[in-house]
Design a protein that fits this description.
Length: 329
């Protein structure tokens, strides 16, 4: 029975990954400081006999080191996310996403962990010059979150190269699904739209809504992590996306509701589109959940967004001031 660690296991993607690993009867330890992860994300698992939840900060190496003894796989998902807070508090993001990653890598190296999987970000491409975007595309982060996630990826690959720690990084594209984070700062489009729909408010569409995103359902992402963990690939980076971009206008059509438009934001690409040929060819992975299926699942779970902020053009304008201040060209 494999022993695995999921850092950030109480978060959106992490909690789905924990659920899957328990279904496959792994011994799972979650490390989470609950700065953004929620215990409620794991509540449905009850007191699963194979699950241990430890409140710990991954950037504190002495604190986390004991948990890595005898561990086979580590899935490193713990990170601070979102654009605006990373602009306003870059040192917090560096500490969590860079120092936290090197701390996890050292804990893995010292314990002789057999494999580490890293949740990288497609935001590393910035405004890509090539679509669909391959893993060989230029790296051009537009804001501190993207930069710190890419620095973490570089650390992972470096530890793999120098210390022969078997590693793989998945550059995730626009992940959505149940338990997506909704609290706090203005963030992901589905959290914003579903809360607006639930409260009878119009969808706040950025620009004209023709911009497209490579929305990837969370269970497909979990499948990619588990598949990569069970493979023999080493020191590889993979795009993890649907490979089928969808416009924001199409999302509002699927959700159904009134639309109003807000100004387009600097530093945001008009398109995100993953070239997923590498992960298909090397790992045999492919996405299974269509955007229609995924949105349908979220609509059935719309009450989950009851406590999410209800964003308006005025509140969005206030929340994204730093975005326009620092990223405007």
């Amino acid at each position: 029975m494999k022993k695995v660690i999921v850092t950030g296991g109480a978060g959106f993607i992490g909690s789905h990954l924990v659920e899957r690993l328990l279904q496959e009867e792994y011994l799972v330890t979650v490390l989470d400081n609950f700065s953004s992860g929620k215990r409620s994300n794991l509540a449905h698992l009850g007191k699963a006999k194979n699950l241990t939840v430890q409140e710990a900060d991954v950037s504190n190496l002495p604190q986390i080191t004991p948990f890595f003894k005898g561990v086979d796989w580590v899935f490193h998902l713990a990170a601070l996310a979102d654009i605006v807070p990373s602009i306003e508090k870059p040192l917090d993001y560096y500490r969590s996403n860079v120092h936290g990653t090197v701390s996890v890598l050292e804990a893995c190296r010292q314990a002789g962990v057999k494999r580490l999987l890293y949740a990288a970000s497609s935001s590393c491409y910035g405004i890509a010059k090539v679509y669909p975007t391959p893993e060989t595309a230029d790296i051009s982060p537009e804001y501190p979150y993207a930069l710190t996630k890419n620095l973490g990826e570089q650390l992972v690959l470096h530890w793999g190269k120098v210390y022969k720690l078997p590693v793989a990084a998945l550059r995730l594209f626009n992940v959505y699904g149940p338990r997506a984070r909704t609290a706090g700062t203005y963030g992901a489009v589905f959290g914003v739209f579903l809360s607006q729909k639930l409260h009878g408010k119009p969808f706040t569409v950025v620009g004209d809504g023709t911009q497209t995103r490579d929305f990837t359902f969370v269970t497909d992402v979990v499948n990619a992590f588990v598949t990569a963990a069970g493979s023999d690939v080493k020191n590889e980076v993979f795009n993890c996306g649907s490979g089928k971009p969808v416009s924001v206008n199409r999302i509002t059509e699927l959700l159904g509701g009134e639309v109003i438009h807000i100004p387009k934001r600097p530093g945001e690409p008009d398109v995100t589109h993953a070239d997923i040929s590498k992960i298909r060819n090397m790992l045999g992975w492919k996405p299974k959940v269509s955007i229609e299926e995924g949105v349908g699942i979220l609509k059935d779970r719309i009450e989950d967004f009851r406590e999410a902020p209800v964003w308006t053009p005025d509140s969005i304008r206030e929340a994204t001031k730093s975005w326009f201040t620092y990223l405007q060209r």
